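Purpose: get a first structural picture of the assembly so the mutagenesis plan has something to point at.
Setup: two entries, given in the order below. No constraints added.
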Amino acid sequence: MVKQKIVVIGNGMVGHHFLEQLANRPERELFDVLVFCAEPRPAYDRVHLSEYFGGRTADDLAMGKVEQYRGWGYDLRLNDAAVSIDRENKIVTSASGASEAYDHLVLATGSYPFVPPIPGHEHEKCFVYRTLEDLDKIQAAAKDGKIGVVVGGGLLGLEAANALKQLGLEAHVVEFAPGLMSVQLDEGGSKLLREKIQELGVTVHTSTATELIEEVDGGRLRMQFKGDKELVTDLIVFSAGIRPEDNLARSAGIELGERGGIVVDNHCRTSDKNIFAIGECALFDNRIFGLVAPGYSMARTTVSLLCGEAAEFNGADMSTKLKLLGVDVGSIGDAHGRSEGSAAITFVDEQTGVYKRMITDREGKKLRGAVLVGDTGDYDTLLQYHLNDMDLPEHPEQLILPALDGAAPALGASALPDTATICSCHNVSKGDIVGAVQGGCCSLGDVKNATKASTGCGGCSALLKNVVDTELAALGVEVNNDLCPHFPYTRQEIFHMVQVEEIKTFDELLHKHGSGKGCEICKPTAASIFASLWNEHIHKKPLVGLQDTNDTFMANMQKNGTYSVVPRIAGGEITPDKLIVLGQVAKKYDLYTKITGGQRIDLFGARLEELPEIWRELTDAGFETGHAYGKSLRTVKSCVGSTWCRFGVQDSVGMALAVENRYKGLRSPHKIKMAVSGCTRECAEAQSKDIGVIATENGWNLYVCGNGGMRPRHADLFATDLDDVTLIKYIDRVLMFYVRTADKLQRTSVWLENLEGGLDYLREVVIEDKLGICDELERQMTNVVGTYQCEWKTAINDPEMLKRFRQFVNTDEKDEKIVFVEERQQRRPATQDEIVQIAEPA
Amino acid sequence: MREVAITRTEWLQVCKRSDLVANSGVCALVGSRQIALFFLPEQEPQLYAIDNWDPIAKAGVIGRGLIAEIDGAMTVASPLYKQHYRLTDGQCLEEAEITLATFPIAFDGDDVLIQVD
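Result (structure tokens, whole complex):
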């Protein structure tokens, strides 16, 4: 069989989606596939481009990995742009000189940023906001600058303004039109958005046209505006809209629209039936769709057609919900109310800065559009009414008015038709989700895996959960959150019972609220709760039988039954004398020595009976236990900060020491790691920690709930420019709220993901004290801090506790089954093969 | 209650009552054999002796495991890979073909006696 050849030009998000969709089909085998990509790397997530400044790397943003394309059997040509199409002979020629024949050609060339032809726009400090390389250049230019201007107040312009702010610049937005986001928002919404954005420190200039850009003394740029106003800046980012990248099609004589764009029909075919165009280069119904979801939809249509199925692209909904500079904005359908016979219902709360407007038909029966600024909580519901053309309730205004009795008349999942699109990134309908649940998916995670719903932008996660929960409930599946067979309660519930009834022993807890005799789930959980609340020594008689083995012996058991010892080195700061002691102890007991990822020194291979001697020597030298064995605060990593570093803006070591010494010994549902960076260069990698602190010129930025273990997660920016006292106060509250409400062994990352209301809710609780519990959280933390003891110091002075550290209760002999061999000048546990060889020499 | 005839000739004294840790384990060396001893004051019997060698992890650590009740049976969870071994007969609950040796054990006043063949 001769395979047909598909050549794809362009490897952006839409091109990638096309290739991914094709790869997952059995018909894939019918084709040879070749991809020309002008950029040096395969497709990456341009929607989340700004996160590149927030610490995500090019790798994080990558969508199509080279290996993956190889696995799919695609011929990917990076750094090689297609330069001409010979339609007659069906051949594409590339910049490198390659000539490739095609049977089907797919144009996914995307768009390019429009730069208005203002004199001076080609200056080297003028940029666009499109590729990772653009962002690198902006970042480099921002290093020595103070002010940055974005030309264009649309969606992408505001995102660019946020990026400039993140880079530490004073940001301005210059918009020609009278309002911001004029495509999506009506006048009222636009006005409110402007106010909110200005409150955040971004200066907005609307109805402002730039006439000239010129360099002034010192290499800065002067922008001359119409009407004699001017602004001096260090760099300019143009974000004045996109233009379809249609040059290749133009020179090949393919039909274009009047103002550009490759004309396609509802099969995504161009005027040449062998050539398709998808994404932002394609013009359908005289429209360019500048969002990723319609592009994906075109890609899927084209794949289906190539595979011989009927499929159509009939335009797409351009509704959007996003957070711009921390302001919630939503736009649905005909947001401006331009369609004939529309009526509007508007709700404005100037006090809280919320603007909501619904556009309905004259009878108020159908929803044609909506604008939401400041609160997009109603977006999902309104979108479903709009997309599914559902009849509005009798009093449609209730959909946007604050409910007086507290309960919003949200559209329940059961009210949605099966055709309702839940996830527009991956085109997953309610019917798909119901099918997945009926097909055996029993959890949100299962459904996500099976359908890919909510794995794109994640905006539909709340609605998805709602649909899944409703379906599970309909099937009679009960979600069991019991801790274990001995306690029909969640960890949170047990925490409250222990606290309210002041329970201090497991027996009492079991007797009052549980059954049976306890297990390795409920015992350590109870021990952790007792420690969080009462902070007694873990070797206290009623507590000792509850601890996991590492807690019991206050060291980490390694694979051969020996232990590793990690003394606390707060903030990673250590004196030469202490370093020498560590070396001496390691040498004396022949311990394998390694610096850990958290800037501590780990000593491996200590026998059970050696632990007390080792710790006596370490505590004599001033060391404390590092709690490396506990579900507790492990380390606070730091860089050297302003003390030594020429870039540091605050004393990161001092802060790391303060934080580590405050929270050391705090027992928690899962282990906690923190870090403090002295500047935005982030040498301590604070955003990959449960609690991350990054210095700013004005104080500290606090990041929370990162890390995530095997499912890594960056921490979220929680609050900015905090003074020392407020920083500690917020960390106290976040940590204690986590300790009190998290599930057993639940990391902060998962805890936040499951927290209803998410980061915003956490801010309400911690910063605004919405629940009125902040005093108590702080009091409880103060109690933990005040009752700290070095567990090892207490233990080595208590002969009763030390009895536990004998290898054998009846003899001082050593465990002969522990065998070490040498590797790289240190010893390590022997493997089973090596042990056999040692025992039976050949 | 289990009836055992205790005579000093058959039974070996391994340690004192005060060497045990309530609701947890310790380890004794009998000949060349490591034996984990568990003392559960609220249970009947109160004492259990079981092989200290974890055949899955290949390390002598059973005596340092956590006591867990699984479906009514008292077990010790191995500290390395968490398999459960029934204290009464050494049966591994996760791996049917693995069983640890168990040994008769009893108090004689403050002495802890054990029978090892």
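The mean pLDDT of chain A is 89.
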